[in-house]
Design goal:
The longest helix has about 35 residues. A hairpin with a 2-residue loop joins β8 and β9. The strands form three sheets. Strands 4-9-8-6 form a four-stranded mixed sheet. The protein has a three-stranded antiparallel sheet with strand order 2-1-3, with helices on one face. The chain contains three helices and nine strands. Helix content is about 35%, strand content about 30%. It folds into two domains: about 70 residues, Ribosomal protein L9, N-terminal domain (Ribosomal Protein L9, domain 1); about 80 residues, Ribosomal Protein L9, domain 2, CATH 3.10.430.100. It is an alpha+beta fold and about 150 residues long.
Amino acid sequence: MKLILREHVTNLGERGQIVNVATGYARNYLLPKGLAYAATPGNMKQLDQQRRVWQTRDTKEQHDAEALAGRLAALELEIVHKAGESGTLYGSVTASEVAALLSRSGIEVDRRRLEIGEPIKTVGVHEIRLRLHPKVVGTFKLSVVAEPQAS
C-alpha cells in the first residue's frame, strides 16, 4: 500500500516521503495514529504545498532542538540509588527515572527519546543521549551515586 508520511517514522522514512508498506502495517498502525495518509492523486497534488509548510516547520524545530542540545551539554544530573560495596546497583536506572530527573530540571522529554543503551547498573558517571530531532541528538552526563548505608 502506498502512503505519504505525515511525520518521521523510525526505520521507515521522513515526513513527506512516499513509502510502500504492508496493508496491515498501514491499516493497524500508521493510519490510526495519523502518521501517514493514502497516496491518492488528490493527496499527491497537495503534497507539494505541504512540503513547503513542513520545510519551514522542520527548520524551526531543528533550530530549537539545537538550542536545547546546547543546554543539555552543560547539564550534569545526579541520581541516588541503593548499591552494594562493589558499586553495583540493586536494580538499574531506568529511562523513566532519567526523564523525571530532567523534568525537575525544567526540560520536559518523552522517556522513549532517551537512548541509554545498556541498563545502568553501576555507580559512576554515564553519558546519556537524547533524540531531540531526527537530525539532532543531545548528550548529558548522569552521575549515579550510592545511597549512604545506615550503620
